[in-house]
Every structure is written in structure tokens, then in C-alpha cells.
Design goal:
By secondary structure, the chain is an alpha+beta fold. It has one domain. Helix content is 34%, strand content 33%. The chain contains one helix and three strands; from the N terminus they run E-E-E-H. It has a three-stranded antiparallel sheet, covered by helices on one side. Strand 1 and strand 2 form a beta hairpin.
């Protein structure tokens, strides 16, 4: 990666709702467009936890590159 490029992570996000009895439940999946790896989530909360964790890992890796 060139020094003048802004690093980023890219995912294809899919969200949909399903009926669980009388309750509407949201599901989600993320797909990495570069390697095709997919992650499925049973709730939007799980999706957010995953994204927060990935962002922390990404930031750590950037800090290591800068030193």
C-alpha cells in the first residue's frame, strides 16, 4: 500500500428480516469482496460487535505498520 493511500476495509452488507413467531428478527451477512469470505449474524447486535472488533484489529495493524 502506498503511503499516500487511505487504508480501508470493504464489505458487502446484506440485511433482512424474518418472522420468529410474532416477532420480527433481523439477520445480516458480510462478504469480503476480495476473498469471498462470508460472516453470518443472527442479530444486528452481533454484526455491530463483529465490526467493532474488526475495526480494533485494523487499527492495531495500522499502528504496527507505522512503527
Amino acid at each position: 500500500m502506498a503511503n499516500d493511500q487511505q487504508p480501508y476495509v470493504s464489505y458487502l452488507l446484506r440485511i433482512w428480516s424474518i418472522k420468529n413467531g410474532t416477532e420480527e428478527v433481523w439477520r445480516a451477512s458480510l462478504e469480503n469482496p476480495y476473498n469471498g469470505k462470508r460472516h453470518g449474524f443472527a442479530s444486528l447486535q452481533e454484526l455491530c460487535v463483529f465490526l467493532e472488533t474488526e475495526a480494533e484489529k485494523f487499527s492495531e495493524n495500522l499502528r504496527k505498520r507505522e512503527t
